[in-house]
From TrEMBL:
UniProt keywords, alphabetically: Oxidoreductase
Molecular function in Gene Ontology: oxidoreductase activity
Protein name: FAD-dependent oxidoreductase
Organism: Actinomadura logoneensis
Domain of life of the source: Bacteria
GO CC entries: cytoplasm
């Protein structure tokens, strides 16, 4: 089977890699260069701290679980910046503190680790943060990947598995021949 992947950003590169590793004939098309458009401007955040229970949170949890496995499967894994550093969300008002506490409870029921922090643990973790904080929650599962580096590594692995890359070509549409 032949497959055309449109775009050599992080999503296209990940798709191309999986398809090529599965033995399909893959051609990746991009009007610019690999990881040169949206991916180049992305933050690479893999966050559970900003999502309430539901499909988006489940996708974030899956993504957070899969990224280390994906990276470990890359031949040059050390070239991809990955930081499973966690995150801290703070509220500076009492109303904000109540909302944050309620949000964290909902996340915990959905399987997210969300730990309330006292002033001492917050100051130890973030010594330069204002002390005018009404509440803080630590999310150890928040992480970040450098998107351009990850996309480039994924694409390189796709090419290593037989995918072809064509840059400088813009897809304007598709033509069907023989019902395909």
């Amino acid at each position: 089977m032949r497959v055309v992947v449109v775009g050599a950003g992080i999503v296209g590169a990940a798709c191309a890699r999986e398809l090529a590793r599965a033995g399909l004939a893959v051609t990746v098309l991009d009007r610019g260069g690999p990881a040169a458009a949206t991916t180049a401007h992305g933050e690479g955040n893999i966050l559970v701290s900003d999502k309430g229970p539901g499909p988006e949170l489940e996708l974030a949890k899956l993504s957070r679980r899969l990224w280390p496995e994906i990276l470990d499967g890359l031949p040059h894994r050390e070239a991809v910046e990955w930081d499973a550093k966690g995150g801290i969300v703070v509220a500076t008002t009492e109303d904000g503190a109540r909302a944050l506490a309620e949000f964290a409870v909902g996340q915990r029921t959905a399987g997210v680790t969300a730990r309330e922090m006292d002033a001492g643990s917050l100051a130890a973790a973030e010594p330069h943060l204002t002390r005018d904080v009404a509440a803080a929650v630590h999310y150890p599962d928040d992480a970040q990947v450098q998107p351009s580096g990850a996309a480039t590594a994924l694409l390189a692995d796709a090419l290593r598995h037989g995918a072809e890359l064509r840059t400088g070509c813009e897809l304007l549409g598709a033509r069907a021949a023989g019902g395909r």
